[in-house]
Design goal:
heterodimer; A: FAD/NAD(P)-binding domain; FAD/NAD(P)-binding domain; Enolase-like, domain 1; seven-stranded mixed sheet; five-stranded parallel sheet; globular; B: OB fold (Dihydrolipoamide Acetyltransferase, E2P); Dihydrolipoamide Transferase; 3 domains; four-stranded antiparallel sheet; 11 helices
Amino acid sequence: MSKYQVAVIGSGPGGYIAAIRCAQLGMKVAIIEKYDVLGGTCTNVGCIPSKALLDSSEHFHNAQKSFAEHGITHNDLSFDFSRMVQRKNGVVKANNDGIAFLMKKNKIDAYKGIGSFVSKNKIAITGSKGEKQEIEADKIVIATGSKPTQLPFIKVDKRRIITSTEALSLNEVPKHLVIIGGGIIGVELGSVYLRLGAKVTVVEYLDKIVPSMDEDISKELQRVLKKQGMEFLLSHKVSGAVVKDNSVTVTAENTKGEKVLIQGDYCLVAVGRVPYTDGLNLEAAGVVKDEKGRIAVNDHLETNIPGIYAVGDVVRGAMLAHKAEEEGVMLAEYIAGQKTHINYNLIPGVAYTWPEAASVGATENDLKAKGVAYKSGKFPFRALGRARASGDLDGFVKVLADKNTDEILGVHIIGARAADLIIEGVVAMEYRASAEDIARMSHPHPTYTEAFKEACLTATENRPLNT
Amino acid sequence: MTEVKVPALAESIAEVTLSKWLVKDGDYVELDQPLCEFETDKASQELPSPAAGVVKLIAADGDDLKIGALICNIDESAAKPATAVATDKAVVKKDVAPVETVAPKTEVKQEVSYATGNPSPAAKKILDEGGVKTTDVKGTGVKGRITKEDAIQAVRNKANMPAREAFSRGERREKLSRLRKTIAERLVYSKNSTAMLTTFNEVDMTAINKIREKYGDGFKKKNEVGLGMMSFFTKAVCLALEKFPAVNASIEENEVVYHDYADISIAVSTPKGLVVPVIRNAESLSLAGIEKKVKELAIKGRDGLLTMDEMTGGTFTISNGGVFGSLMSTPIINPPQVAILGMHKVQERPVVIDGQMVIRPMMYVALSYDHRIIDGKESVSFLVAVKDFLENPHKMLLGADPVDLLLEM
């Protein structure tokens, strides 16, 4: 039986990064993956493929809607959806190969099969043909991630009623895509098909979309998406979905208690994700889960069983690839005796809609709830030369700062390139910068980053230079 | 080219130690920009530049230098580099007329903010692993943030600290500072060259405590300084010195010098060691005047800002070991003075008054004196007089019991 210092179950961003960092620190590492390819949800059915399709559809959308304004005309614009999906698959494969290369480079043994505990130091790996082998490890890291949440009253048939996984590999562009859930996954995938000509209706239980973000961002994103043609049914409680031939009818109830029927050809259930622990046989090791089905861990990501750890979506905290990666690094270093720390408050969240939305730190509602005295500085991209030059005028940067100390407490951006701009907020907050600190740093002109500086000026002394 | 020499800092000082250069060889210095720090027998002080120009260092850190020794040259013909303004840390000395060309002074003192002591992510990891608390690290980043370099330095410094494990037999050696060397020499000199002995008494602090309790707030409001014990003791000592001039005298070779003023040296503990600044003409000061002076000298002492003048002279010394909890001690005379009063901790003790045992706040006082010129009778009487004034503060008003005066007794 092969023996390792560390065995990682799951090869998503949490698992494979933990494996690499452990190997860098001199440990003998094994990684176990259920699927044929490495990379987990992020690489195969999450971040990467969705961004590939988002970018393809964005190009088409621009050609269709914005090129004329730039003086570019064309006849007979069309797209080949299968080519788009093919390209996406190519992007995914390149990433799969990249991770496989990294495993080899770091001398990490990759096992294909379902890993399950035999004891607290032993894992059985069952391959797709039922073949079994066992490995032993001093430390075991559970990085099995999450899967889309199912609603008890809707059966996902993966044909007409689908999850994000199927939505990334459809054979056709839906005519009318009904999306249950107005979170980040819902609006991103909705954007893809909206741009490719589908009618998209988002049915959301709450009274706002992307509820994890600042309310101003929710409102602005909804406004812009509505302008693009996305339809929203907010405060609607979905009660069921019925497939008949090639159509699906979603039933919901509005706030007045009236029954609403939405008929489309596809229904995407995007109501969040749940930790995935199937097949792990946690009982054999004695590892316990918390009340939400997550693997319970302490601040060092160690479970109730010493020597068994867990990272990423399968534990508490935001279900984000970059959060899982940070945990993977922290855990590997912790196992090596280092004292790494993650500031969970400063893990940014991003929605890759167009305009993009991104956020870090406290929202305005968080600060109100905590009773923190704060001030807010908001600056619209519309006022920037850069935004005018490219024609991306929607959105703003909003900076929330402590009223007394001027320390930046939250940054919320919606606009072109928000996903990349947010990192300035993260750096600023890691160093506990004040709004004035940022306002006094030179920002290149003309760039979208100027909006950050102007929002900080507004937060500090309400003296933006360009409005 | 201007030659910069060790200036005559005070009459009694023949040699200084150049403790630290504050500029680097080849730096452009502004007029009055501090060039280096001197440590003398009594204090450390900065040397302001006599000219603006490029500095060429001659003496080195740690050199012992005679007064008048050349320490550096300043080339005034050298052009001021463009960046000099940005890096200039010149602080114009109060007593020097500001020169127009001096660049706006930048704050040398680190600004403090909510982020002071906040470690960067990398710094935090290094400190955590090194077992160093962020509160023990001085951040050099913007507004006192702890940079990665600060963290590396702090962990390295910790590693260099003397080992504290059980049974360690490590030791370390440090050069005696000039101040410590001077203190040592003078104390030994005092012990060896005087006929020193100590007399004790005790003071019932009830009356003074009552005054401080009753008038303390009003005193503070009016004078912006607290009503402490120091003012009462200084006043009582001055009045007693008037009665016993020998205690206020000094010996110079074959002569006794009597002073018709009382310059009271007060011993102040500072981070660098004991210093003894002087309250001049203490006999003429009000209690508020004494308290203000004590506070001023204590703060200057703590910050290392006492000047040579402020520490020279003195006809009698008061030392308060009570602040550290001492119950009794035999202070050492500060030559050429001939006596020193030691104050101690106030402690509630049972005492017998009129045949009754009562609890009173008591303080032992000690007077060390040079028996060569002060007789036992004088020294004991002096200390009894001090005790009498302190226990009957109303007598301090006129230097005697008012009723005695009224009756011309």
